[in-house]
UniProtKB/TrEMBL annotation:
One of its GO terms (molecular function) is methyltransferase activity. InterPro entries: SAM-dependent_MTases_sf. One of its GO terms (biological process) is methylation. This is Class I SAM-dependent methyltransferase. It holds the Pfam family Methyltransf_23. Keywords: Methyltransferase, Transferase.
Length: 210
Protein backbone atom coordinates (compact mmCIF):
# COMPACT_ATOMS: atom_id res chain seq x y z
CA UNK A 1 0.00 0.00 0.00
CA UNK A 2 2.84 2.38 0.93
CA UNK A 3 4.53 1.85 -2.47
CA UNK A 4 1.23 2.37 -4.28
CA UNK A 5 0.60 5.77 -2.61
CA UNK A 6 4.23 6.93 -2.91
CA UNK A 7 4.10 6.14 -6.64
CA UNK A 8 0.80 7.91 -7.13
CA UNK A 9 1.85 11.08 -5.27
CA UNK A 10 5.18 11.02 -7.15
CA UNK A 11 3.54 10.74 -10.57
CA UNK A 12 0.30 12.66 -10.02
CA UNK A 13 1.23 15.19 -7.30
CA UNK A 14 -1.91 16.71 -5.82
CA UNK A 15 -4.06 13.95 -7.29
CA UNK A 16 -7.47 15.31 -6.30
CA UNK A 17 -6.63 18.97 -6.88
CA UNK A 18 -6.65 21.82 -4.38
CA UNK A 19 -10.33 21.99 -3.45
CA UNK A 20 -11.15 20.23 -0.17
CA UNK A 21 -14.10 17.90 0.29
CA UNK A 22 -17.34 19.67 1.18
CA UNK A 23 -17.51 17.26 4.16
CA UNK A 24 -14.61 19.15 5.73
CA UNK A 25 -16.73 22.31 5.97
CA UNK A 26 -19.49 20.27 7.60
CA UNK A 27 -16.93 18.88 10.06
CA UNK A 28 -15.53 22.37 10.79
CA UNK A 29 -19.00 23.64 11.72
CA UNK A 30 -19.71 20.71 14.02
CA UNK A 31 -16.25 20.83 15.60
CA UNK A 32 -16.62 24.59 16.26
CA UNK A 33 -20.08 24.11 17.77
CA UNK A 34 -18.47 21.61 20.16
CA UNK A 35 -15.52 23.80 21.11
CA UNK A 36 -12.94 21.55 19.43
CA UNK A 37 -9.38 22.90 19.48
CA UNK A 38 -7.26 20.01 18.21
CA UNK A 39 -7.89 17.58 15.32
CA UNK A 40 -6.13 14.38 14.23
CA UNK A 41 -6.33 13.51 10.52
CA UNK A 42 -5.43 9.87 9.78
CA UNK A 43 -4.37 9.28 6.15
CA UNK A 44 -3.85 13.01 5.58
CA UNK A 45 -2.39 12.59 2.07
CA UNK A 46 -1.01 15.84 0.61
CA UNK A 47 -3.08 17.99 2.98
CA UNK A 48 -6.09 18.64 0.73
CA UNK A 49 -8.42 18.60 3.74
CA UNK A 50 -6.02 19.47 6.59
CA UNK A 51 -5.49 22.92 5.02
CA UNK A 52 -9.16 23.83 5.54
CA UNK A 53 -9.08 22.44 9.10
CA UNK A 54 -5.82 24.13 10.10
CA UNK A 55 -7.35 27.56 9.42
CA UNK A 56 -9.48 26.92 12.56
CA UNK A 57 -7.83 24.21 14.71
CA UNK A 58 -4.47 22.74 15.73
CA UNK A 59 -4.14 19.90 13.24
CA UNK A 60 -1.87 16.85 13.10
CA UNK A 61 -1.90 14.42 10.20
CA UNK A 62 -0.59 10.87 10.15
CA UNK A 63 0.31 9.54 6.74
CA UNK A 64 2.20 6.45 5.54
CA UNK A 65 3.48 8.04 2.30
CA UNK A 66 6.58 10.20 2.65
CA UNK A 67 5.82 11.70 -0.78
CA UNK A 68 2.35 12.68 0.44
CA UNK A 69 3.92 14.32 3.50
CA UNK A 70 6.45 16.28 1.38
CA UNK A 71 3.58 17.70 -0.67
CA UNK A 72 1.53 18.39 2.48
CA UNK A 73 4.35 20.34 4.17
CA UNK A 74 4.29 22.75 1.22
CA UNK A 75 0.53 22.95 0.80
CA UNK A 76 -0.43 23.21 4.46
CA UNK A 77 2.47 24.57 6.55
CA UNK A 78 0.15 25.21 9.53
CA UNK A 79 -0.46 21.50 10.24
CA UNK A 80 2.03 19.00 11.66
CA UNK A 81 2.48 15.75 9.75
CA UNK A 82 3.86 12.44 11.00
CA UNK A 83 5.07 9.54 8.89
CA UNK A 84 3.51 6.29 10.09
CA UNK A 85 0.68 3.82 9.78
CA UNK A 86 -2.68 4.38 11.40
CA UNK A 87 -2.73 0.64 12.04
CA UNK A 88 0.20 1.00 14.45
CA UNK A 89 0.14 2.95 17.66
CA UNK A 90 -0.73 6.42 16.32
CA UNK A 91 1.06 9.15 18.31
CA UNK A 92 2.08 8.14 21.79
CA UNK A 93 -0.17 9.36 24.57
CA UNK A 94 -1.26 12.49 22.75
CA UNK A 95 -5.02 13.15 22.78
CA UNK A 96 -7.14 15.25 20.44
CA UNK A 97 -10.62 16.79 20.68
CA UNK A 98 -11.63 15.38 17.29
CA UNK A 99 -10.69 13.08 14.41
CA UNK A 100 -11.50 13.82 10.75
CA UNK A 101 -10.87 10.85 8.48
CA UNK A 102 -11.70 11.19 4.78
CA UNK A 103 -11.94 8.07 2.60
CA UNK A 104 -9.42 5.92 4.43
CA UNK A 105 -11.69 3.45 6.23
CA UNK A 106 -12.87 1.71 3.05
CA UNK A 107 -9.28 0.91 2.02
CA UNK A 108 -9.00 -1.84 4.66
CA UNK A 109 -10.40 -5.31 5.27
CA UNK A 110 -12.57 -5.94 8.31
CA UNK A 111 -9.89 -6.56 10.96
CA UNK A 112 -7.88 -3.49 9.97
CA UNK A 113 -11.01 -1.31 9.76
CA UNK A 114 -11.74 -2.05 13.42
CA UNK A 115 -8.10 -1.49 14.29
CA UNK A 116 -8.16 1.97 12.64
CA UNK A 117 -11.33 2.96 14.51
CA UNK A 118 -10.03 1.68 17.86
CA UNK A 119 -6.68 3.44 17.38
CA UNK A 120 -8.55 6.70 16.71
CA UNK A 121 -10.80 6.28 19.76
CA UNK A 122 -7.68 5.82 21.91
CA UNK A 123 -6.36 9.21 20.77
CA UNK A 124 -9.58 11.07 21.65
CA UNK A 125 -10.16 13.23 24.71
CA UNK A 126 -13.24 12.40 26.73
CA UNK A 127 -16.45 13.27 24.78
CA UNK A 128 -14.27 13.73 21.67
CA UNK A 129 -15.82 13.68 18.20
CA UNK A 130 -15.00 11.65 15.09
CA UNK A 131 -16.07 12.42 11.51
CA UNK A 132 -15.44 9.57 9.04
CA UNK A 133 -16.29 9.25 5.35
CA UNK A 134 -16.20 6.09 3.23
CA UNK A 135 -17.58 4.56 0.02
CA UNK A 136 -21.32 3.83 0.06
CA UNK A 137 -22.85 0.59 -1.20
CA UNK A 138 -24.82 2.93 -3.51
CA UNK A 139 -21.62 3.89 -5.35
CA UNK A 140 -21.34 2.57 -8.90
CA UNK A 141 -18.20 0.55 -8.10
CA UNK A 142 -19.94 -1.59 -5.49
CA UNK A 143 -20.02 -5.22 -6.67
CA UNK A 144 -17.49 -4.59 -9.46
CA UNK A 145 -14.58 -7.08 -9.70
CA UNK A 146 -13.51 -9.96 -7.48
CA UNK A 147 -15.21 -10.26 -4.08
CA UNK A 148 -12.60 -10.28 -1.30
CA UNK A 149 -14.84 -10.21 1.80
CA UNK A 150 -18.49 -9.34 2.41
CA UNK A 151 -18.96 -5.88 0.88
CA UNK A 152 -15.32 -5.64 -0.31
CA UNK A 153 -14.35 -5.85 -4.00
CA UNK A 154 -11.21 -5.56 -6.10
CA UNK A 155 -12.93 -2.89 -8.21
CA UNK A 156 -9.67 -1.90 -9.93
CA UNK A 157 -6.99 -4.52 -10.60
CA UNK A 158 -4.77 -4.69 -7.50
CA UNK A 159 -6.96 -2.24 -5.54
CA UNK A 160 -9.91 -3.13 -3.36
CA UNK A 161 -12.41 -1.18 -1.32
CA UNK A 162 -15.20 -1.85 1.14
CA UNK A 163 -18.64 -0.45 0.29
CA UNK A 164 -20.74 0.41 3.37
CA UNK A 165 -24.46 0.09 3.91
CA UNK A 166 -25.80 2.42 6.59
CA UNK A 167 -26.24 -0.51 9.00
CA UNK A 168 -22.70 -1.76 8.38
CA UNK A 169 -21.28 1.72 9.05
CA UNK A 170 -23.30 2.05 12.28
CA UNK A 171 -22.04 -1.38 13.40
CA UNK A 172 -18.42 -0.34 12.88
CA UNK A 173 -18.95 2.49 15.42
CA UNK A 174 -20.86 0.41 17.94
CA UNK A 175 -20.39 1.69 21.51
CA UNK A 176 -20.11 5.35 20.42
CA UNK A 177 -22.90 7.92 20.37
CA UNK A 178 -23.98 8.50 16.78
CA UNK A 179 -24.66 12.21 16.24
CA UNK A 180 -25.35 12.07 12.50
CA UNK A 181 -25.10 9.63 9.61
CA UNK A 182 -25.76 10.43 5.98
CA UNK A 183 -24.85 10.25 2.31
CA UNK A 184 -22.95 12.77 0.24
CA UNK A 185 -21.93 12.93 -3.43
CA UNK A 186 -18.25 13.80 -3.71
CA UNK A 187 -17.16 15.24 -7.04
CA UNK A 188 -13.41 15.01 -7.52
CA UNK A 189 -11.65 17.15 -10.10
CA UNK A 190 -8.43 15.21 -10.79
CA UNK A 191 -5.15 16.89 -11.56
CA UNK A 192 -5.29 15.53 -15.14
CA UNK A 193 -8.75 17.15 -15.68
CA UNK A 194 -10.73 13.94 -15.15
CA UNK A 195 -13.89 14.51 -13.13
CA UNK A 196 -15.27 11.60 -11.08
CA UNK A 197 -18.30 11.27 -8.86
CA UNK A 198 -18.36 9.05 -5.76
CA UNK A 199 -21.26 8.29 -3.45
CA UNK A 200 -19.96 8.42 0.10
CA UNK A 201 -21.42 7.81 3.52
CA UNK A 202 -20.35 9.89 6.50
CA UNK A 203 -20.78 9.31 10.21
CA UNK A 204 -20.25 11.67 13.14
CA UNK A 205 -19.84 10.05 16.54
CA UNK A 206 -18.95 11.02 20.09
CA UNK A 207 -16.77 9.01 22.48
CA UNK A 208 -18.73 7.99 25.53
CA UNK A 209 -17.06 8.00 28.94
CA UNK A 210 -17.22 4.60 30.55
C1 LIG B 1 -7.83 7.89 -0.58
S1 LIG B 1 -6.45 8.73 0.08
C2 LIG B 1 -7.24 10.06 0.97
C3 LIG B 1 -6.26 11.17 1.29
C4 LIG B 1 -6.84 12.32 2.10
N1 LIG B 1 -7.65 11.86 3.20
C5 LIG B 1 -7.52 13.26 1.16
O1 LIG B 1 -8.74 13.31 1.12
O2 LIG B 1 -6.85 13.99 0.43
C6 LIG B 1 -5.87 7.66 1.35
C7 LIG B 1 -4.63 8.19 2.04
O3 LIG B 1 -4.38 7.37 3.18
C8 LIG B 1 -3.01 7.02 3.22
N2 LIG B 1 -2.91 5.73 3.89
C9 LIG B 1 -3.30 4.51 3.44
N3 LIG B 1 -3.07 3.55 4.36
C10 LIG B 1 -2.54 4.18 5.44
C11 LIG B 1 -2.07 3.74 6.71
N4 LIG B 1 -2.12 2.45 7.07
N5 LIG B 1 -1.57 4.67 7.57
C12 LIG B 1 -1.51 5.99 7.23
N6 LIG B 1 -1.92 6.46 6.03
C13 LIG B 1 -2.43 5.59 5.15
C14 LIG B 1 -2.56 7.00 1.77
O4 LIG B 1 -1.16 7.14 1.65
C15 LIG B 1 -3.37 8.17 1.19
O5 LIG B 1 -2.69 9.38 1.38
Amino acid sequence: MEGYWNDRFNKEGMIWGEVPSKTVYHAIQIFKDNNVKSVLVPGSGYGRNTKALSAHFQVEGIEMSHTGISLALNWDPKSNFFLGSVLDHISGNKKYDAVYCFDLLHLFLERERHKLINNCIRQLNSAGLMYFTCFSNEDKNNGVGRKIEDGSYEYIEGKFAHFFTEEDLMNHFDGLQVIEIGTVVEILQYNDNQRKEYILRYIIVRKLDR
